[in-house]
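Work Package 3 (structural annotation) set out to generate three-dimensional models for the target panel prioritized at the project kickoff. During this period the team completed the workflow that converts sequence records into discrete structure tokens, so that structures can be stored uniformly alongside our sequence database. As a representative example, we reproduce one entry of 163 residues exactly as it appears in the project archive.
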Amino acid sequence: MNSVSKNILSLRRIEYLIVNEKWQIIELSPKIKFLADSFNEVDLGKDIRISFPEFLGIEMILKDIIAGKQESFELKGVIRTQQTLNLIYLDICIGNNIKNNQISNQLLIIIEDVTERMGLEQSLVQGTNEANLLLNTLSASKLYIDQIVTSMGDALFTPRMGD
């Protein structure tokens, strides 16, 4: 990967791997190890499925991307626990490592740390859920108050006997 592309990726907290058809890592960005499930298993020549277990079970999809039958594949919101027990969220995008406008027998895997965005999304969803609960409580209270007001009218307008 050229230096301009590497600089662009590093500005957005994006890391990358290039993997061959045998799932071996043939190129990697410097900080990719910090996003892996198995820190020590991310190295040239190692099987990507060991350090990134998300690739287990999707080998047919990956083969289709290498063959050019499928353009790309994405895994969004992958959760990873770091050694500090902090959760990080990753978006993984997989495509063919196209060279000279030709498909190759390699995969380009882009991994972006989206922890901040996912935290904001979760806060937004939580706020929406709390607002909906409050709305439901207010609606139930209004119905109860309406029933009380209706009942009060019945009690106030009772006919007198003997008129």
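The longest helix spans residues 115-156.
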